[in-house]
Amino acid sequence: MYAIIRTGGKQYQVESGDTLRVEKLQGDVGDTVELSEVLLLVDGETIKVGQPVVEGARVVAKIVEQGRHKKITVFKKKRRKGYQVKKGHRQMYTALTIETIAA
């Protein structure tokens, strides 16, 4: 059984036991999070497609880490104008382990 969920403006295909990094969610390490935006649910030969979400379906996940990705460098420059700006950015993330997918 797998599901396609939406969180943080992105879509993820998840199965029970998967670990994935999503945009930062509120909660501490060890907390349980319920993701209710299930767009598609596949159970063997049975496929449920949401309009836009599948009614009554939910994915329960456990927070295993709250962290920050590697730093990226943002560099802006305008040629012949003497303008340049260098910045760094580290995006926050939440690592989740999928526990159950409930129809």
Automatic annotation (TrEMBL):
GO terms for cellular component: cytoplasm; ribonucleoprotein complex; ribosome. The keyword Ribosomal protein applies. InterPro entries: bL21-like (IPR028909), bL21-like_sf (IPR036164), Ribosomal_bL21 (IPR001787), Ribosomal_bL21_CS (IPR018258). GO terms for biological process: translation. Keywords: Ribonucleoprotein, Ribosomal protein, RNA-binding, rRNA-binding. GO terms for molecular function: rRNA binding; structural constituent of ribosome. Pfam families: Ribosomal_L21p. The keyword DNA-binding does not apply. This protein binds to 23S rRNA in the presence of protein L20. PANTHER family: 50S RIBOSOMAL PROTEIN L21, LARGE RIBOSOMAL SUBUNIT PROTEIN BL21M. Belongs to the bacterial ribosomal protein bL21 family. Part of the 50S ribosomal subunit. Contacts protein L20. This is Large ribosomal subunit protein bL21. It comes from Desulfobulbus oligotrophicus.
